[in-house]
Write a structure and sequence with these properties.
The protein is α/β, with parallel strands linked by helices and 236 residues long. The chain is built from nine helices and eight strands.
């Protein structure tokens, strides 16, 4: 029986509780994403507030592809301007795949959800993971490569092969997808990573942490962790 870690949710709650002031994070949010606001609200954070601005890609698409990622990056400057009167401790583009695909540079100081995942793994000293995504296989492969380039080894990955429709993915589908991962890879990994801000992974995180005896990081939890650490003296 593995000794269970505190878990990602417990770590997040502790960081939020330790804040001596309100921490404010700006989220540049893809226009069709409903999961981010749903999941962050359900985390019950008391000292961390998220302020949202919607990003509408010029292509007006919702499926992930080059035009979608390009459009999100191009729309970020104007969306960031809409938050300019709010004193923010951190700003994040709430899209993971936009962080490891091509496109114009983001405004200075803006993190992507992929950046948030890398930070969360670094804070936990995790360098070996298994990766679970809703993405098409090629996008999942690109993310695995991006993790490797950042010093994180992906021992195995599983994906649903979808380009759109992420909010409709059920917890049972997610658990079934995790079940496709090789047991030896899960055993050797230091954490499980759920990539993508657009699907509802929060309902299965605690269950899987107990099942595997290791932390589970999602894109949305990683953004919340980055925000809670953004107060003075904590953010690196």
């Amino acid at each position: 029986m593995h000794q269970l870690p505190d878990g990602t949710l417990a770590t997040l709650a502790a960081l939020d509780a330790a804040a001596d002031r309100t921490v404010r994070a700006g989220l540049l949010l893809p226009w069709a994403n409903v999961a981010v606001e749903t999941e962050l609200t359900r985390l019950g954070l008391r000292h961390t507030v998220f302020h949202h601005a919607r990003l509408v890609p010029a292509s007006r698409t919702t499926a992930i592809d080059a035009s979608f990622w390009l459009g999100l990056r191009e729309a970020s400057a104007q969306a960031l301007d809409s938050l300019s009167h709010i004193p923010l401790d951190a700003v994040m583009l709430a899209c993971t795949s936009a962080g490891f695909t091509d496109g114009p540079p983001l405004p200075g100081g803006v993190f992507t959800a992929f950046d948030a995942l890398l930070r969360a793994l670094a804070e936990a000293a995790v360098v070996r993971v298994v990766l679970v995504t809703p993405y098409p296989a090629l996008v999942t492969e690109a993310e695995s490569t991006a993790f490797a380039e950042a010093g994180v080894e992906v021992l195995a990955h599983a994906s649903l092969g979808l380009a759109d429709g992420y909010p409709a993915i059920t917890p049972d589908q997610i658990l079934s997808l995790v079940g496709q991962l090789p047991q030896e890879a899960i055993g050797a990994a230091e954490a499980v990573v759920f990539s993508c801000t657009g699907w509802h992974t929060l309902p299965v995180i605690a269950e899987l942490e107990h099942r595997f005896g290791k932390p589970v990081f999602s894109s949305n939890l990683a953004m919340a962790l980055l925000a809670t650490r953004a107060r003075a003296g904590v953010s690196s």
